[in-house]
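ok new one. same drill as before - structure tokens go in, u give me an amino acid for every spot. 168 of them this time. try not to just spam alanines like last time pls lmao
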């Protein structure tokens, strides 16, 4: 089973306790890594690759989104791969950063009638797949990425977050 070195930074005190986030991230990202290694034949390095997770708020993610994507608004999750990868490419020692905004996750969870943890789990998987070169800009890419997300979430006992929707 592939291992990950997960580094967590909490920038907003309203997030759950660090130990709670660490346990959730280890379970979710561990399942995603295991799925990619097994089902997608994703080659993992012998040393555990590092992934950095930043748990922040809408104001901070809005600044990041504006600076890096020219979108002056908050978003739920942003991913910054350390190295460009194509799906099924071999990751390096650093996968990259995933940044999550608490208020947006909370609002979306309410709108989707899901628990905060369930929606956060989905966004962690989504952000993690971006670090491996998966994207959803084109319909074909979106279908492939959403199918992977759905299968990984099913392995965690969660339902299809895209049921009844067209690919993003």
């Amino acid at each position: 089973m592939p291992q990950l070195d997960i580094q967590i930074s909490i920038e907003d005190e309203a997030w759950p306790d660090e130990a709670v986030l660490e346990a959730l991230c280890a379970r979710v990202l561990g399942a995603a890594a295991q799925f990619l290694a097994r089902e997608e034949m994703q080659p993992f390095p012998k040393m555990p690759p590092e992934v950095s997770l930043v748990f922040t708020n809408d104001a901070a993610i809005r600044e990041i989104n504006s600076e890096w994507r020219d979108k002056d608004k908050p978003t739920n999750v942003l991913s910054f791969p350390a190295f460009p990868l194509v799906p099924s490419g071999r990751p390096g020692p650093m996968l990259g950063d995933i940044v999550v905004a608490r208020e947006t996750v909370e609002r979306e969870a309410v709108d989707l009638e899901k628990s905060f943890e369930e929606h956060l789990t989905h966004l962690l998987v989504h952000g993690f797949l971006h670090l491996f070169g998966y994207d959803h800009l084109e319909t074909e890419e979106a279908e492939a990425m959403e199918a992977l997300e759905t299968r990984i979430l099913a392995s965690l006992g969660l339902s299809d977050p895209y049921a009844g929707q067209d690919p993003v």
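The chain has a mean pLDDT of 91. and btw The longest strand covers residues 94-101.
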